[in-house]
Amino acid sequence: MNIFQETENKMTKEKFKRDFKKKVEELSSEKLENSTTKFQYEALAQMVMENINPIWAENRRLNRINTDKQIYFFSIEFLIGRLLRLYINNLGWEDIVPDGLEELGLDYDNILACEHDPALGNGGLGRLMACFLDSAAALDFPAHGNGIRYKYGLFQQKIVNHEQVEVADNWLKHGYPFEIRQPEKSVVVKYGGNVRTEMVNGKLTFIHENYEPVLAVPYDVPVSGYHNKTVNSLRLWDAQPVDDFDLNAFNEGHFLKAVQSKSQAESISQVLYPSDHGFEGQLLRLKQEYFFVCAGLKRIVRRYKKQHQGSLDGFSDKICIHINDTHPAMCVPEFMRILVDEENYGWDEAWDMTVKSMSFTNHTVLPEALEKWPVDMMQNLLPRIYMIIEEINRRFLEEMNGKYPNEEARNYNISIIKDGQVHMAHLAIIGSHSVNGVAELHSKILREETFKDFYAIYPERFHNVTNGVSQRRFMMAANQELKNLICDTIGDKWTQPGQMEALKDLEKYASDSDFQKQLQGVKYHNKERLAKYIKEHLNVTVNPHSIFDIQVKRIHEYKRQLLNALHIMHVYNQLCANPNADFVPKTYIFAGKAAPSYYFAKQVIKLINVIADKINHDPLTKDKLSVVFIPNFNVSSAELIYPAAEISEQISTAGKEASGTGNMKFMMNGAVTLGTMDGANIEIAEHVGMDNIYTFGLSAEEVANYNHNGGYHSVDVLQQNPDLQKVMNQLIDGSLGGDTFHTIYDALVLNNDTYFVLKDFASYCDIQDQSSRDYLNHHSWQKKSIMNIANSGIFSSDRSIAEYQKDIWKIK
Ligand code: 26Q
């Protein structure tokens, strides 16, 4: 059902064409036929906002009076991607707009491409938030986001001389049509200064003075639901000086000081930190974390009090604060501060309300990514917050020492403050009623290893909610031809929110040769579309009849793009040795950004590009083997890439990838996973069956066993494998056009290969060979592809959101 098509002033194609033409001509002062694509984009964006705004306002009005529980996601990243097409689809205009524009002689895709893709996140964690907002709105469920309106999003990646070069992402340069600035909802965030105590009316009162105020100004972005009347809000906070100039400083003639304080305030929301691994304790990052926590909670509290006669009683029955990884963990002490210092609750009651309101999702088990802030930094920047953390910790340890007097070592281990650092994960676990991992294996590792001491104390707090992704963006919109084919075959029940598991009906067609042929045709078109993009952007010709084997994600040692690259070198060696042997044509595609300070990951990018250059220029490989590194992986290029994939590379060292979500996006577009038993791959294998996935390598348990015994001996593996020796030597002997990769060689050979790349190499080569042989049997390959699509429904973020509702937020 599409309720927008039932209303009286429903949009028709003719009305759309008239309104659109008028809008373009008003904006551009030109006849439509003389207008630029930029004006056409702006006109379309404005029309969309004019239609969403009244519904959004109505949603806000209803949210003010109704008593449904509201969810607030606090996340330092929201990787929302382009929004125009999604708004159009959600409004139910998906058939009207493309046709209408075509009749006006315009190209819909060109217009959509004018939207600057907002890159307000690094990768999985930020994109997950965007998928969750999409699903919550689709399911008519009030969930909102709170984050930072970074002036510069994640850097844009260029490849120059085979290497990554970072370019600033000035995404707001031409304005952003989907945000509404709400200056009257600005709040002040206080940094630094000192805290003084005073008895006021017989109560010990904490007075924060000499602080530096920063103004937090909210910008709201509508989050509309699919074919329904729900519009939620994503609130992004911008940092501004409280007064444009510090007037005192200015009047005293300290002009430079005044300007400096302005730029110090603005610096807080200036840029997204481009690292998603390796915690670095930078002061500005800590400022960012407190910034959106403080501002977001202030508005939520203010709104709640307004609705409840000035009281916060009952808050935790009506509001859930969801902490996305530890970056917003200061929600815990900040909410305590509000309750105790400002609202005069007693500590115990305040603590009970806090724990009941907060829930926490962990996204990583890499020890180097866990946040630990130096005590003196936190104490100086946030003196009252630090005092409250100390008190939370003191009471917690007192309770633990009372309950478990013989567990001294453990009680020290779980302390929030130890060794001069504040452990943010401990704060988040102690201050929340729920802690969850993002795939079965990951949640098990949290319970049994990472947080095992907490699991012993609070077993009831631990949950698993396996991640999911938005099928509306990553399949229905990105792969419309596939969507249409499936709807023609099994109907459209699966396209309805929460119903994606109806795709299971496709299993009936798994061996149907007509359906298989049509599916193959769809895949071929998507491969051609990607091949065209590659030709245009990289001037590399790839053979659309070859297998498209794709690995796209952030570049990390644990994700092992290196394993993929070493295998390609091996394949190339074989081809050179036997140019006339049978060879299944293959195109290896990579994309992904490395953190600018992550030297090893940048060497891997360089290696891939060097190999690509060599292989693509060798006439021997023509139409058989090509390698492509697509620069600047982002949500928009992802939408082109997933639909074209036949093999989805998910090859992380087992136990390291919390879940992965790209694996799910590939699967719903019919790619077959080639991966380790890690993260959500394990659940993909369970659902699709072992005949329809290629798995290889050590298990998480085997990896852990090696690690408990100090690792394995990579040299032994190397000695037994001449093919691998050859590849490894090529890294350092100048075979790669004179470039050498000693850092990579040393890590694998001399430093014992922390990520088990050499250990899993032989098993990876075997499974690669097997998949290429299987591909030759088109019938059985198409069957695998269909089984993947048919069983992907469970990996919809609609299912994840429904589980959070039921198990964590406890909403009926
Ligand atoms: C922390 C401190 C300082 C600077 C940066 C960070 C930081 C920023 C981002 C740490 C981690 C991240 C992002 C982590 C992330 O994206 N994790 C991924 O989350 C996905 C969604 O749950 C999972 O599918 C992936 O497996 C996981 O790697």
UniProtKB/TrEMBL annotation:
One of its GO terms (cellular component) is cytoplasm. One of its GO terms (biological process) is glycogen catabolic process. It comes from the Bacteria. GO terms for molecular function: glycogen phosphorylase activity; pyridoxal phosphate binding. The modification N6-(pyridoxal phosphate)lysine is found at K665. SUPFAM superfamilies: UDP-Glycosyltransferase/glycogen phosphorylase. InterPro entries: Glycg_phsphrylas, Glyco_trans_35, Pyridoxal_P_attach_site. Its cofactor is pyridoxal 5'-phosphate. Its EC number is 2.4.1.1. Pfam families: Phosphorylase. It catalyses: [(1->4)-alpha-D-glucosyl](n) + phosphate = [(1->4)-alpha-D-glucosyl](n-1) + alpha-D-glucose 1-phosphate. Keywords: Carbohydrate metabolism, Glycosyltransferase, Pyridoxal phosphate, Transferase. Phosphorylase is an important allosteric enzyme in carbohydrate metabolism. Enzymes from different sources differ in their regulatory mechanisms and in their natural substrates. However, all known phosphorylases share catalytic and structural properties. Belongs to the glycogen phosphorylase family. This is Alpha-1,4 glucan phosphorylase. It comes from Pseudoramibacter porci.
